[in-house]
Amino acid sequence: MNHVYSFKNRQNDEFANCLIGQFHDSEQVCYYYKLVHYHMKLAKIMYDHDQLKTCLILCNWALNSMIKALYSHKYRSVNVPTELTMNTILPLVHTDSKSGLDIAIFIGTMQHLSSIEDFLNCPSTNMNNVKKLVQQTEEVLGELKHLLG
């Protein structure tokens, strides 16, 4: 049976690598890393169906899952905080070579946007802005992934 190597197959390979030990810390890191992918996949589906609020909530959940993976990786702990504050996020995303302030501010912005109750009347809720936020979320997740390995 011939299989074409595609982006989707590469994503499946990443899941398989995670399961066989790509992250040497714990099953907890792998669990949160898989959640990141599931949340982003669902966020894109919701975006395609014009469910913008749900899309942003899922992007926020993906960012939170990545922060929890980083926390578990850095502190070798399975007890991650349930509420992620800037005091928790900034030390995880800040490195000697790169300031994590932009990433921390973006995560805080996504937390805020996903918690707005009157979302439909918010000026940032048009399709183009939400699409940019989804793209930025993917870029941030890509940067944070390098901190896991």
Provide the low-confidence segments as ranges.
1-13
**CATH topology description:** Four Helix Bundle (Hemerythrin (Met), subunit A)
What structural class do you assign from the helix and strand content?
mainly alpha
Q: Identify the overall geometry.
A: globular
Explained architecture:
The chain is mostly helical. It is built from six helices and no strands. Helix 2 packs antiparallel against helix 3. The radius of gyration is 16 Å and the shape is globular. About 30% of the residues are buried.
Characteristics of this structure?
single chain, 149 residues, mainly alpha, Four Helix Bundle (Hemerythrin (Met), subunit A), 6 helices, 70% helix, 0% strand, globular, disordered N terminus
Write the layout of secondary structure elements.
Blueprint: H1 7-19, H2 27-48, H3 52-75, H4 86-93, H5 101-115, H6 127-148
Helix pairs in contact: 2-3, 2-6, 3-4, 3-5, 3-6, 4-5
Question: How do you describe this structure in short?
Answer:
The chain is mostly helical and 149 residues long.
